[in-house]
Amino acid sequence: MSETVDWDPDQLVRAADRELRTGAWREAVELLRRALVLAEDHAHAHAMLALALLVPGRVIGADAESKRALELDGGSPYCHYARAATAFARDRFDEAWASCAVALGGGLEIGNQPETEVAIHVLGAKIRQARGETELARERPARAIAWLPQRVSTRVEAAKLELAAGRLELAASHANEALRRAGTDLAANVVAGEIDLRTGDLAAAERHAQFALLQDSTDPDALRLWAVIKSRKQPATGWAWRALVWIATRNDRQQNALLAGSFLVVQLLMILANAAGLPGVQGKLVWVWLAFVLGVFYGPVGLHKLVSADAGTPDRSV
Question: How far apart are CA 12 and CA 14, in angstroms?
Fold first, then answer.
């Protein structure tokens, strides 16, 4: 990176934008933090940092950054886009739509990049769907596809919306087009597998799930699809697959809440056991809880190894 870029926050933000578009969120975060050291009130940098932090699921940090961005520039469509994305990640759908509506109506201020405008429309569709506005949600991907027909992720989101509405034929047409353009795309294979499940083609669903896991055996959506397929094929052990995947796909915040909640439940059971004169039960409860804690911490690694062996995919858990 040139000396000019190193000391120019706007150049750093543009470099971060390029990194973020390729999925390199760590590099984007580093560049944005350097930009904010140089210009701590750079609203666009705060907004982009919020979007970058959402990639690994760091919702609390993203929430703080998007709020700061709006404090600095409440009229910026891009800042409202970042706020909408973080509010949506926190299930605050009304707040998310309020900011998304501003972003949709305000245009773009950096480079007039159609990719960002398409991303806003896709986010708007997700928010509308979450608010139960299914028909209105369908309008957004349609516009986005018209602008950037080659963008696979928009086709995938359109397929998901049609699938949620029960329009399997339309969902399949979007999924097939996504796969035609990028046959190795993970998300496209997952949604195609979900459509196959709904139509009863278990073998095709398994092929798509296996291909998705070949791209990334730790992907939460691919793992959930695989668990559903296993439960359909092996009902006796399907519950175990679902439980393992459910635990393994919790984010850090959810895992901490799960551990805290289970601790309180065990404490309550120990009190009840003591009151009932069953001291031996207390020790067993402690061991059960410790086993559960180990399962939460090490279960994801074990699950990924199990999936890799079962699906014949590379083990990417280490």
Answer: 5
Rounded to the nearest angstrom, the gap between the alpha carbon of residue 317 and the centroid of all alpha carbons in its chain is: 18
> Distance between CA 183 and CA 56 in Å, rounded?
25
> Tell me, what DSSP letter sits at residue 219?
-
CA distance 41 to 153: 32
Tokens representing 77 are 């469509």
Maximum alpha-carbon separation in the chain: 74
pLDDT at 213 over 90: no
Highest mean predicted confidence (pLDDT) among 92-96, 249-253, 292-296:
92-96
Distance (Å, whole) CA 13 – CA 21: 12
Q: Is the pLDDT assigned to residue 317 strictly greater than 50?
A: no
Residue pair 143/121 in contact (Cβ under 8 Å)? The answer is: yes
Check residue 42 and report its DSSP letter: -
Q: How far is CA 278 from CA 265, 266, 273, 290, in A?
A: 17, 14, 5, 20
**What secondary structure does DSSP assign to 136-155, as a single string?**
HHHHHHHHHHHH-TT-HHHH
pLDDT band at 311 (very low <50, low <70, confident <90, very high): low
The residues near 40 (Cβ < 8 Å, ≥ 6 apart) are none
How far apart (Å, rounded) are the C-alpha atoms in residues 176 and 154? 13
Q: Cα separation of 39 and 239, whole Å?
A: 52
What are 141-155's pLDDT values in tens digits?
Answer: 776 676 667 778 888
Q: Which amino acid is at 264?
A: L
**Among candidate residues 12, 77, 70, the one with its CA nearest the CA of residue 39:** 12
Q: Is the pTM of this model over 0.85?
A: no
Q: What is the mean pLDDT of residues 181-198?
A: 93
CA distance 250 to 245: 9
Query: Is the model's pLDDT at 4 over the cut of 50?
Result: no
Q: Is the pLDDT of residue 302 over 60?
A: no
